[in-house]
């Protein structure tokens, strides 16, 4: 066990854990931020996506020891009230089905649009490609990302 200093959703947090504990478990079990989901556990599905210094990363495969002193943002920290353009577009398009993959989808989409605010359809599909949705809500996901880009730019 060791002590780690993390910055999560703008708040400093001190956590005790083994160095190889995945960030996902720190978020869910230590900090009670359960919006980030566990899917595959092997960086293949995207359900656990959060932002690390603004980049979309898979928290199931990131040991806590590797994320200290970086800005971690989870779905709970994306906006206080669901007012982020991606969240608004998600609601307008009514994207979710079962909802399980959606936090990861939104975190991938929001990091992507920060870097590419006016993407082509092709770029949106490429960016979202690694986030699996077992309900196959892909068309609505693409539409919502497009709408968020329009509302942002
Ligand atoms: S749970 Fe992390 S990528 Fe699937
Ligand atoms: S909405 Fe069910 S897994 Fe994506």
Summarize the structure.
Residues 2-78 form the 2Fe-2S ferredoxin-type domain. GO terms for molecular function: 2 iron, 2 sulfur cluster binding; metal ion binding; oxidoreductase activity. The protein is α+β, with helices and mostly antiparallel strands and 153 residues long.
Give a verbal description of the structure.
The protein is of the alpha+beta class and 153 residues long. It folds into two domains: 2-77, Beta-grasp domain (Ubiquitin-like (UB roll)); 85-152, DNA polymerase, domain 1. The chain contains six helices and five strands, in the order ββαβββααααα. A five-stranded mixed beta sheet has the order 2-1-5-3-4, sandwiched between helices. Helix 3 (85-93) crosses helix 6 and helix 4 runs parallel beside helix 6. It starts with a strand and ends with a helix. The structure holds FE2/S2 (inorganic) cluster (2 copies). The site of one FE2/S2 (inorganic) cluster has 11 residues, from loops.
